[in-house]
Amino acid sequence: MKNKDIKLNSVSASILTLGMGWFPKNPGGLERYIYELTHQLAAHEDQVELCGVGLPIDAKNTHIKLTNLADPDSKISSRLWSIRNNFQKTRLSKPDAINLHFALYSFPILDILPKGIPVTFNFHGPWASESQEEVVNKKFSIWLKKQLIEQSTYNRCDRFIVLSKAFGQILHQQYQIPWQKIHIIPGGVDIDHFRNNLSRQEARIKLGWPTNQPILFTSRRLVHRMGIDKLLQAIATIKSGIPDIWLAIAGRGHIQALLQQQARELGLENNVKFLGFLPENDLPLAYQAADLTVMPSQSFEGFGLAILESLACGTPVLCTPVGGMPEILQGFSPELITETITVESIADKLAQIMLGKLPLPSREECRNYTIKHYDWTNIAQQVRQVLLA
């Protein structure tokens, strides 16, 4: 117990993190989470080394040591060998804690991790199950991903962090991880970047968006489980009563062409705008420009960082009852959680909101809620306590 107290109360600790790509070059939720967490820990004067794939060699304005282990465009076999080889070559000293975030890239180094150092795995989702649902990459069978890579990695770890009770349940039930090893710590939001500093009109003018129409916004990877197809159908359903409704969709993904075709077939050419990749500095503008952010996920939504980003910008969020998303809104605006994941349920809530039948929380209430519960400064310290326990 004495050693634990020394670690937690010390001015700094050495923390080794293994992630994936580099944010914002790779604009995913996992990459953003790792980026924010490591920068918060470094700001606390911890010595943080981030290992990953495709990390910049000359990143400026960062107090984090970056160690690139492989080329993200190389063949998977070459990439995994490079991860192992380069990790081994770059080990100079033992850290105080090891923090892993992605099973595939953790797997090649499990047996060469420093002995006697606690290993914490941040479980961001069931990789094999997500892959099975999208059926994008068949290089690894689902069995191989889950039983060999994921399970072997988790068996090597001492403790786990999940962003929600929902993903804690998956980790416990599907991978047989005991609850006593699982710590639930929500994600955080950078409240200085995601701000409520412009009126909706000002934000719309800056983006070149319509200034006199009700606007919905969603920022999603364009893959099946995100439910954008259901959202488009819901817009088509309520369009007769709200003909000027306008939906802005930010993000890229392998079903983008299918979604664009669907929008045309539904007659939504004037109601839907596919923005593609939205630059990081424009994201807070987009949230502030919208009347409502919509998260129509159909499965495997472990948390929903976009909900926090939107709320921090003062814009309320409508979400489906999937994964950890309801855990964010339940204590704030539970009426903005749809009854089910169906088109009908999404359309019903949207119509109530857009027609003024369902009151929305104010911009100040949205932002204050995130500041109180999800400020990264506080979240990072909760994570740090688990890493160094």
Overview of the molecule:
It is built from 16 helices and 12 strands. Strand 9, helix 10 and strand 10 (272-276) form a beta-alpha-beta unit. The strands form 2 sheets. Strands 3-2-1-4-5-6-7 form a 7-stranded parallel β-sheet, with helices on both faces. A 5-stranded parallel β-sheet has the order 10-9-8-11-12, sandwiched between helices. Residues 1-9 have low confidence and may be disordered. The protein has 389 residues and is α/β, with parallel strands linked by helices. The radius of gyration is 21 Å and the shape is globular. The longest helix has 15 residues, at 29-43. Helices cover 41% and strands 14% of the residues. Helix 5 runs antiparallel to helix 6 (142-156) and helix 12 packs across helix 15.
Brief sketch in words of this structure:
With 389 residues, the chain is α/β, with parallel strands linked by helices. It contains 16 helices and twelve strands. The protein is globular, with a radius of gyration of 21 Å.
